[in-house]
Amino acid sequence: MEAAWMNDIPAAVRASQQRLRAEVPDLAGRFARLSEALNDEVSAIRSEMASGHAVPEIAYADIATGRVSPADTARILRRGCAVIRGVYDPAQIAEWNDEVVRYIDEVGYLLRMKDKAGLDKYFSALAAGRPQIFSLYWSKPQMQARQHPNLAATRAWLNRLWTFEKDGVRFFDPDRQFNYADRIRRREAGDATLGLSPHSDGGSVERWCEPTFRHLYRDVLQGDPFAFNPFDGEGRTQTREIPSPAVCSAFRTFQGWTALTRQGPGDGTLKLVPIARTMPWMLLRALQPDVPEGDLCGAQPGRALGASEQWHPELLAGLVSIPEVQPGDTVWWHSDIIHAVEDQHTGSGYSNVIYIGAAPWCDKNQRFAGRQAAAFLAGRSSPDFAPEDYELDFPGRATPADLSPLGLQQMGLTP
To answer: Which helix (H) or strand (E) is 84 found in, with range?
Structure first.
């Protein structure tokens, strides 16, 4: 059920911007303080890049044995992202990578995609050429990777970086995952079609207009903006997004992907602004007097929240490519983090990933799980994405018989 303000979004945007400009205490002063802190973080990122990398890196073996240091944990909380190495056996990854290629061919993806033109409003610009993102959700490698016990341990560790309980009220279960179904990236060398501009997923104008989002950012808008904790789970599972194939309607503590091939800077891969406390500055930037009335720095309903050189150059000065990763490594970034995809793949081999985030079990994800399980059983596209349904009549897709007891639970098919 949509909120009433969604019936006239332009009017709601204008009214929310006007109200917040009038109500936020010392708007100019708090934005100036946040801008100073942002510039300090960007300078720190540049220093870290000069001596190593700004994206923290830890080993899965340290998670499995409880040896992640407090310093590494603190750095992940500050940077809002991490590379976790060696989650999967590289030999298993190689098998999955080969099987994904066969699956794409057997589904007849390239032959059928022309009949689906225009359905995907987010990646529609790619429809004229060879796809690099494949709207496939139910291949056996994807399902096997999602239900792998090493990944379950990794995601539970990531979930526990969050505050998931206060005063006896639990916001989500950090140790039980929901397997949010996402797609496959198979980007070929030389590709220049897939670059995605900097953005944050999970809502755009809602962050200013929707009361459930404003509750998340109450410290930013009314209290001490430096008290805002991006890892506080309170209210995160109650947010209401504008329904759209370009907006995630589940709750993810971290977005993420698993590397099927070696890839690094220049290979058409991920870029991040590794600052966990990005959103306070973004929110107040749209309320500054140089932003036209009714314009939240270009935010568009039903899309990701963009960061542009026009409005956010100070923030984008911190945008960096991730470090080189190997098959079986995983990459994770907080759902508020600004991220992008390199415009060109200038490397020599395929840059392949399976998108798998961390989505803990909660009421919001349980409701989504019911819709997603129905799509899985029928072979339809995941309900958060365009209804292209490439796997609908394909007998080679995964079925419940291919799932482990853990996988069945993660899909909401068993208690």
So the answer is: strand 81-85
